[in-house]
């Protein structure tokens, strides 16, 4: 056990999101959150062209469905958000006994042997494949399709563990895309690293692969990755991908990956030598923060996307799930994961692109944000009054269809349709997407007994009530606004030796429930009718009756004139300022 005074000992949890990183200082003995700091990534999400401040004036243009990030933005979270959190807490940094991080996933960093990201290596700054591929990078769908077809043809035993389909967001699809589109970058890459592990490597100087992403995103099951024979059948040059690029020592969740280096101590202002926990995923660390460590407790972490995680006592194969992993959330139980690729992102897209200026002006006059203003208007509607049904696929479908070539639908619009009508229909669509996931769990013998929501979207009371009514489940929100960061702090306390395991730490440090939303019977009945329409559209467009969405994607790529040539060659395409 760390020799720091247990009554005053603190840990730091750092939550790496899609657009920013947040650090929270947490007291070990009771989980009290003492202070926080946030840092917005300067380069945010790169979707159109490489940043000129790094890649030069050429501004290499990106093909469609790309989403990249800059790894140094992640280091700056340690340099800026962590000291800010300590200052906000008003504690002596010497009281900090451990630090842990969580990350979006599957977010991949190509590195050299010493952990240097390839985009920082001379000669690679203008090569898109040298950058971080964010979780929502969906340009590897063709590679994912080939992986799925071949695995199904060969009857690969691991495929049912992932609901029968591997996502384009995951390690193997993105790695195969890198090989086939820029073999020079692939050859220069020594390690294909989850960002969750890369940031831990930066903190402690030791590269340890975490059991969570290895299992859910890296197709690591029962001690094995897909075979060399399988990989060679995809592409002969991919045969040794696991042995030469991916495979590494795997750390158990809650263990220490190493100890804070002098360099990282200088970045953060924390004591050198404190414990650095094995990395983890933002959704999975939130389960202990919500005290949801028993079977049947479904935690939905709702932000730009939603990830659904739940423990189970037994192994079940759930069609369309992101995966089931032994010890994937807490050791000793099977951890299940599902997800929706777009939730808050969809609401943000609509308010940015689909709401006329007078609504924004009215919101400002009322002293409200546009989301709050539209929510207030939509709250006055009866269920079904807008006459709309939507599909929540604006960023593809992660579960249960696992197809990122799918796209959004809003059906029933007329000349009388208003922005609040569409906004409410989109809120409802995401609730129906979650219900589809809940029913898939139930039908596979993994019943949901409790529904807990964490993340930024729990602040929207209308949205929470819609979820309760649409699923028919009582919904409770986590009491902490920093669920993932609190969950990481819990792991840090275990890694520092202050608790025996995650379960014990969660009992002492986890957040008590916040607000509770009970399904309203008449609303449940009204949403039952709308859900039937959602399900009909879901199956019509998503299960092969009409592949128009795939055809439209192909037409779009052809018409745009943007191919992967720039990504392969690194030859910049001029983009106007």
From TrEMBL:
One GO cellular component, as annotated: cytoplasm
MF term (GO), any: ribulokinase activity
Catalytically driven reaction(s): D-ribulose + ATP = D-ribulose 5-phosphate + ADP + H(+); L-ribulose + ATP = L-ribulose 5-phosphate + ADP + H(+)
CDD domains, alphabetized: ASKHA_NBD_FGGY_L-RBK
Pfam family, one: FGGY_C
Alphabetized InterPro entries for the sequence: ATPase_NBD, Carb_kinase_FGGY, FGGY_C, Ribulokinase
Ranges for domain Carbohydrate kinase FGGY C-terminal: 299-496
EC id: 2.7.1.16
Swiss-Prot/TrEMBL keywords: Arabinose catabolism, ATP-binding, Carbohydrate metabolism, Kinase, Nucleotide-binding, Transferase
GO annotation terms (biological process): L-arabinose catabolic process to D-xylulose 5-phosphate
Pathway the protein acts in: Carbohydrate degradation; L-arabinose degradation via L-ribulose; D-xylulose 5-phosphate from L-arabinose (bacterial route): step 2/3
Kinase is among the record's keywords: yes
Family, as annotated: Belongs to the ribulokinase family.
Protein name: Ribulokinase
């Amino acid at each position: 056990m760390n020799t720091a005074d247990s009554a005053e000992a603190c840990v730091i949890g750092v939550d790496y999101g899609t657009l920013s990183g947040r650090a929270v200082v947490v007291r070990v003995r009771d989980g009290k959150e003492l202070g926080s700091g946030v840092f917005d990534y300067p380069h945010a999400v790169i979707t159109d062209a490489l940043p000129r401040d790094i890649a030069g004036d050429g501004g290499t243009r990106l093909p469609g469905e790309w989403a990249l990030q800059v790894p140094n933005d992640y280091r700056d979270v340690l340099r800026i958000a962590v000291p800010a959190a300590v200052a906000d807490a008003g504690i002596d940094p010497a009281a900090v006994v451990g630090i842990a991080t969580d990350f979006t996933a599957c977010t991949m960093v190509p590195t050299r042997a010493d952990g240097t990201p390839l985009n920082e290596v001379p000669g690679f700054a203008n090569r898109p494949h040298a950058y971080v591929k964010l979780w929502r990078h969906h340009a590897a769908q063709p590679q994912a399709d080939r992986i799925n077809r071949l695995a199904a043809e060969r009857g690969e035993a691991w495929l049912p563990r992932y609901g029968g389909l591997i996502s384009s967001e995951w390690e193997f699809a993105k790695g195969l895309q890198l090989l086939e589109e820029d073999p020079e970058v692939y050859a220069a890459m020594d390690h294909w690293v989850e960002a969750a592990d890369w940031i831990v490597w930066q903190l402690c100087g030791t590269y340890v692969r975490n059991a969570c992403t290895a299992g859910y995103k890296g197709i690591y099951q029962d001690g094995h990755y897909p075979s060399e024979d399988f990989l060679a059948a995809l592409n002969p040059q991919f045969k040794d991908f696991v042995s030469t690029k991916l495979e590494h020592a795997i750390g158990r969740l809650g263990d220490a990956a190493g100890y804070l280096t002098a360099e990282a101590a200088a970045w953060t202002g924390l004591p050198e030598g404190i414990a650095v926990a094995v990395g983890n995923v933002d959704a999975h660390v939130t389960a202990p923060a919500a005290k949801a460590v028993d079977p049947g407790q479904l935690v939905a972490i709702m932000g730009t996307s939603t990830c659904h995680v739940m423990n189970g006592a037994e192994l079940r194969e759930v069609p369309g799930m992101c995966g089931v992993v032994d010890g994937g959330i807490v050791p000793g139980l099977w951890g299940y994961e599902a997800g929706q690729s777009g939730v808050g992102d969809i609401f943000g897209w609509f308010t940015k692109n689909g709401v006329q200026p007078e609504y924004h002006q009215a919101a400002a006059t009322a002293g409200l944000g546009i989301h709050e203003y539209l929510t207030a208007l939509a709250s006055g509607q009866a269920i079904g009054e807008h006459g709309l049904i939507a599909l929540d696929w604006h960023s593809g479908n992660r579960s249960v269809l696992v197809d990122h070539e799918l796209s959004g639908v809003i059906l029933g619009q007329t000349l009388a349709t208003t922005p609040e009508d569409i906004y409410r229909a989109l809120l409802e669509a995401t609730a129906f997407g979650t219900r589809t996931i809940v029913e898939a769990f139930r039908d596979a013998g993994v019943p949901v007994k409790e529904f807990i929501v964490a993340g930024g979207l729990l602040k929207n009371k209308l949205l929470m009530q819609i979820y309760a009514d649409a699923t028919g489940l009582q919904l409770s929100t986590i009491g902490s606004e920093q669920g993932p960061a609190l969950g990481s702090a819990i792991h840090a306390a275990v890694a520092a030796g202050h608790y025996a395991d995650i379960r014990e730490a969660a009992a002492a440090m986890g957040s008590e429930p916040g607000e509770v939303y009970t399904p309203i019977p008449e609303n449940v009945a009204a949403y039952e009718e709308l859900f039937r329409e959602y399900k009909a559209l879901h199956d019509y467009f998503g299960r092969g009756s009409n592949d128009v969405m795939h055809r439209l994607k192909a037409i779009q790529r052809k018409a745009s004139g943007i191919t992967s040539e720039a990504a392969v060659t690194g030859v910049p395409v001029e983009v106007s300022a």
